[in-house]
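Morning. Coffee machine broken again, so started the prediction first thing and wrote up yesterday's gels while waiting. Chain of 356 residues, entered below exactly as on the submission form.
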Amino acid sequence: MTLFNRRSLLAGGASAVVAAAFSRTPAAAHPDDGPTGAWAPLANMPFPVQEIYPAPFWRASSESPSLKPKPFNIVVNAGGLRPDAPFEVTDRVTYYDPLYDAWGFGEPLPAPRHHIALVNNNGLLYAIGGFARNERGGWQMRADGWRTGSIEGPWEPIRPMPHPQAETVAVSLAGFIHVAGGRAPAGSVNADWSDHIDTDEHWLYDAAADRWVALAPMPTARNSAAGAVANGVLYVIGGRTVSDGNSAAVEIYDPLSDRWSKARPMPKAQGGLAAGVINGKIYVFGGEYFTPRPGGVFAEAWEYDPDKDHWRAVAAMPRRRHGLGAVSMDGSIYVMGGAAKVGGAATSAALDRFDI
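Came back before lunch.
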């Protein structure tokens, strides 16, 4: 068990001094669209990590243990790729407390994973799918998952997905977990990047029954997309395909009708990106592209207004990254980790807060 108090804080405080240097506004914003947002650097993650899917969670204060825990008062990351040679797949669980601008450690995952999706659903934290690594390869897709009611653990297993699925979109929607799209094994081999295909499969996890239910498939099979829930529906944004590169597609799933529809595409096709929601609007950050070679990493950030089906540019990321995570909490979006160069190079420990 990890005790979180002032002595267990890993970092904090000093980052506020340089926050003003990170605020910026793009020149191309329409004057009628309102503010374009500002960025502030926060305490770095305990170690550089990429290919992460963090989530909001809660933790009771160790200084006031008698108080009821406040929902969504910490940001949690689990697993990912660390920049060691060869790349290390980690089982470490870390969490950020905005009250102290500091990080702590939680109970590790039962096994190392990268691209594992964290989802807060009905007060429990779920870790689903992802890739494992051993002597056969570093991209072995997994269908299993775990859940916990406390950052201190323990993790307990849940029923595995019917098929292995990773680099997917996973969200909590209307009390259930939805897992849509991503990569799937191309055949019996499931060990490396080249062994995969895109999938359109869409699953609902019913935690009360510990079962998975097949739902309407995504119209566009793709991986490395961003997911967000706004106005009671799921948005799957951008991503890429195994063979055709990045996608600008935006598709909407309505759980009441079990149907998908199309929305206005992104202004740019971006894969390996992340998204969060503030006041009903969706904000999308970063990503990478492989062509034209040698490729690159996006600094662009975008706002999508679901009511108007309208995209606009907002303040660009001060530290461009792909394979990053974004978490909405208390009216801000916390953008963390990722890599500053295409693929595995320049893995980052950065944490920045975006406000609009």
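The radius of gyration is 19 Å. Going to sketch it on the whiteboard this afternoon.
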